[in-house]
């Protein structure tokens, strides 16, 4: 069995390695690695949130990209109007655009949380395959809704041309922006770890095992699950706002069901119910896409057998393999 120390040292070691990435990129004279791993870090935030509800709560959401897209569009639309100097809404409540990064990130996070609150309030009244299909249906509804927003590019998406402003930091510098995203990932991992180890987390895990017994004990399982769902949605909303900053572009592709599938693959590949596993999963998936994509456009056909092999060999994905190796050499 791996020691308790290993369960903390491995995530800390992984974050330390990620912190050294810009230095490694300079040493290898491969500056594109910073942009690649910025994407890894950003999508890992959304994947960690999905692991919170899937790995610990047993809520198999196939519409997690909806919160990613809502957060991205909220931030993107506000930034677009901020660059234009125009109002997002003029009546009944005047809402102006902004180029302030903290405001955009906060708005994206709030957008993801509100979307999760609405979708979760309905979806969590069901379970099993019905829950899966309802979350997928909501994501597809939002996907087509944003396609209909011709003012913001419709299916072609919306370009922003520059990143938002953050006092004291130059977000146009890729390394600076990378460290900001890494700080958000570390903070979100810490938040989720505290949640999992709290009484709240114990209730969520109990709901996964036997929700009826939790309700019989007088604990409102629905409210706990909804709160957990909103926390995961907020993380995805923040991830969406950050990825829009990275690309200076937002499109309905952020909400596509394939994006939800990618996030789920990250969680399964890295290890469900581990929190840091999705970070490994995001890294492995995007690196495989980058490397294999250079040789063939059918790289997913190679990833499929790899994913099946990992699931068969290691119940807890790549994180489980790392823990097992640590235990063997410990």
**Which CATH C-level class is it?**
Mainly Alpha
- Summing up helix and strand content along with how strands pair, one would put the structural category as mainly alpha
Q: Portion of residues in helices? A: over 70%
Proportion in β-strands: under 5%
- Domains, number: 1
Q: Which parts are unreliable, with pLDDT below 50 for 5 consecutive residues or more?
A: none
Would you mind describing this structure in some detail?
- The chain is mostly helical and 330 residues long.
- The protein has a single domain (4-329), classed as Orthogonal Bundle (ABC transporter involved in vitamin B12 uptake, BtuC), CATH 1.10.3470.
- The chain is 72% helix and 3% strand.
- The protein has 13 helices and 4 strands.
- It has helices at residues 4-19, 21-27, 32-56, 65-84, 101-123, 128-147, 174-196, 199-216, 221-247, 257-270, 277-293, 299-313, 317-329; strands spanning 87-89, 95-96, 158-159, 249-250.
- The model has no long low-confidence stretch (mean pLDDT 89).
What's a quick, concise take on this entry?
It is built from 13 helices and 4 strands. By secondary structure, the chain is mostly helical. The longest helix has 27 residues, at 221-247.
Topology diagram in text:
Elements: H1 4-19, H2 21-27, H3 32-56, H4 65-84, E1 87-89, E2 95-96, H5 101-123, H6 128-147, E3 158-159, H7 174-196, H8 199-216, H9 221-247, E4 249-250, H10 257-270, H11 277-293, H12 299-313, H13 317-329
Helix pairs in contact: 3-7, 3-9, 3-10, 3-11, 4-5, 4-6, 4-9, 5-9, 8-9, 10-11, 10-13, 11-12
